Fold each of these.
Amino acid sequence: MIDQVMGIIGCQVLEDEMAYVVANDPEVRHVLVIDSTQERTMAGKVQRMAPDKKVSLFDEQFDIKQFQLTPGLNVIVWVKSIGLHQSPPMLREEVSRSIARIEPLAKSILIFYGQCGNAFRNMEIFCKGVKVPVTILKDKDGAPIDDCYGTVLGGRDEYRAFLIKQPGPSFVLNTMWLANWRHFMQEMQMLHDPNDVEEAKTVFQYMDYKRTVGLNTGLVSDPVFQKQLQEFATIFGLEIENHDCTLRIVDSSYNEAKRCAMMEL
């Protein structure tokens, strides 16, 4: 059986969705995780979701020669810190460098991001010189989605409809934000000390947040999701909306990138 390699480079905010697509693909034999985050939880999630798969963990100092491939489909998943969103040009450059590092092995690469402040606008220019197909998360019309929230809401139209229906300023949280909001707020410069939420409360009052919306994809057990959402709402004195979401975009985008990787088989 031939070794075939697909690359995924994405934000830790969508870590649960990345873990889901590789863990639930029966053709994936080996998941090679490069984890650039403080939490370093990706490899463990994949292993718990798919104990039959081989999972290897590396940091950013890896040597590509360390990658011992398994016959069949191998997926390299590079998880990037949320802090890169502080600068879209820096995010774009970091992802570009990561593409260059795994390109010698990969047959296709999926950018697990939305446009994220136009960091990935003009994909043709962004991918210039890359010798393998590079795809990005897209909605049903084939257009790049806006950001991580648009990914699970279902696309650009669904995202806009969601925002229009909000009765006022709302703080939106997906599963990774709910699990890691203290550190994420620190990375996004809403908190200096993750154990002192008074700064964030001041920001919330200034922004006039009255409610929090939990984007529920079903990737976290409902009791855990509801408990985390309630705890967050209680700390900040917010009303709760539980919004059911979809994995349609991550499934279709992953399958597109996989088809590109498998074309030579």
Amino acid sequence: MTTIEVTEETIRQTRELRDEFQKFLREYEFGMREVETKISILRDEFTHDHEYNPIEHVKSRLKTPDSIVEKIARKGIEEPDFDRIREEITDIAGVRVTCSFVADVYRLFDLLTQQDDITVRVVKDYIASPKPNGYKSLHAIIDVPVFLSTGPLLVPVEVQFRTIAMDFWASLEHKIYYKFANQVPSHLVQSLSDAADAASELDSRMERLHREAHGEPLRQLAPPPPPHVVEV
């Protein structure tokens, strides 16, 4: 059995690395909180001032150290340091906003990204252009300022907007692919694709019912993607 001598210097360096990594993750946690606060304010304003809440629920997540390491490996990042990780991995902090209808997705996207302190890096509109497997969602990487004792810091946060039907389909698809370790039988892949079409049709029908019940014109049913969508 090989004995490895652990020196005081090794312990000190390990603790410094641990502390630095925890500080690194806290920055993303703070950025995530800022986005959560902005979404919460919009939800409360709609509820109290407009008597309508376009947000069904909000979920947030921070990548674990293991997930970050796995993504570093997948992206082939050699000799990574914190600056390189910040540059290459932009979804360490994530917020998912689930809305009632497609129109609400674009409305919330606009209200969030048009705020003066928000900078939009990338937008991927998988609602206007779904993925081949049927996945639909509106993704945005935004920079949000976090004000620390050392000064302001821009933190990237991935925000996903989707409807209830889109969220249900994505959750089911993820569970199936996890169950089969990404080797999903072809008949289930086809069934998932059919379910994605059914979910899209359900979104359209429910939005039509909502608009008819509230006396809104049907021409608003299919709003075009916002013009500032920069990447699909």
Amino acid sequence: MDPIRRKILKAGAAATAMAAAPRVFAQQTGRGGAAMSFYEKGPVRIHYQEVGSGFPLLLIAGGGLNSTISGLSGPFPAIEEFKGEYRCIASDLRNANSGQSSGPLEIDRPWDAHTDDQLGVMDHLRIDKFMVMGFCIGGPFIWNLLRRAPDRVVAAVLAQPSGFRPEMPTLSYDTNMTGWGPAFVKRRPEITMAMVDKFLTKMYRTNPDFVYTVTRDFVRSCQTPVLILPDDIPAHPYAVAMEAAMLAPKAEVSMFPWKEPKERIPLAVRQIRSFLRAHRPASA
């Protein structure tokens, strides 16, 4: 081949590779520099993202069984607020309709199946100890993490946590039977609404009480520092949040209301930041 032609072809190939590189990098990192990956174990496939650096902070979005990473945008942008100081890890809940995580519908152990996924991601990333902040359904998930892995969770923030409201005993079941189940069944034809009913019954109607996942005795004995930011809408009962705060021996509580007026939200974020810094291991 003519030497000049060889040089032209070589230069063209290099230029093509350089042009393609940013596209590949974008696919791997996603928006805002977040690394997007999948953790797989058997039939379970969990989509997660990492962004930032520092001591690990697991973030659990609200949204019930439709909890996804995108839900961390409110009531304040959690990843944006804390990525400068922490290694933020977040994932789509298994089988959330708008997410990319999937797995079996474990009818007999709904809460523990999701906790398996959360701990599985941390194991996959070789993270032993971490802090956690969760919204809405993240409240019950955090209590279950504290029950299952008390030596791994350094501190926890429960913002607008879900709980059982005796005057509306089927609220969480009803919400997910209409807002999650039908779309899930449509996507997964091997799943029936009868199976969804059994799953949600086990999750929300079989001996429902308090924070769903643990007993008052457990909260009373829990030695992990927790910060609770109460809410007061039907799915986030103020009474349950405050009872948990009163029972937990190392609990702190925010002002209330902290979301309204909106000018109070930065003050709540400041309290969360101070709480996490106070309990972050000195070696981190």
Amino acid sequence: MDFLVQAIIPYVLLYKYSALFVITFLASLIVPIPAGTLLVASSAFASQGYFNMTTLIITVIIANIIGDNLSYWLARLYGRVILSKVAFFRKILASKNFILVERSIDRHTGPFIIISRFEVISNLTANIICGMSKVSYKKFVTYEIIGTFANVSFYATLGYFFGDSWQAVNKLIGDFSIIFFLLIILGVSLFWKKITVRLSR
């Protein structure tokens, strides 16, 4: 997604905090924009005095929290209604495996939400699944805030301290995210039977 970041950065440099807020909000709501990568780049510019680091962090945190919460509530109120109109998704929602996944998420909500904050696709997926599974809002928002603070602190620190090398850092993060995502898919695929047996107990 490097090309997407390169296309967005000029708008961030031009409109500063307003652009950061809108882009981060959309990334946490429904659009798979690499907000973490953008935060690293923006923090690198902050190290050069282009942004105020405190204002930047507050802007991104607020945008993330609002976007995540809206995504959760949209999924909770309308997710099942909309997806049930499509035969493929209707079968998934009614399947035993999906019920087991919901049960697992309810048991391990904290790690699930916090870890998901560090990758844009997993972040969007977690918001939607938590909303449709009707994970309690209190539980969701508590871990969402913790995860958001951890996520923003991590990416902002990397960008600020690595400064001129932010592009190399972003490439490393992107490669790691892809590998991490593939490992999760591989792990679930290999051990799905064992996972479902354990959850059904």
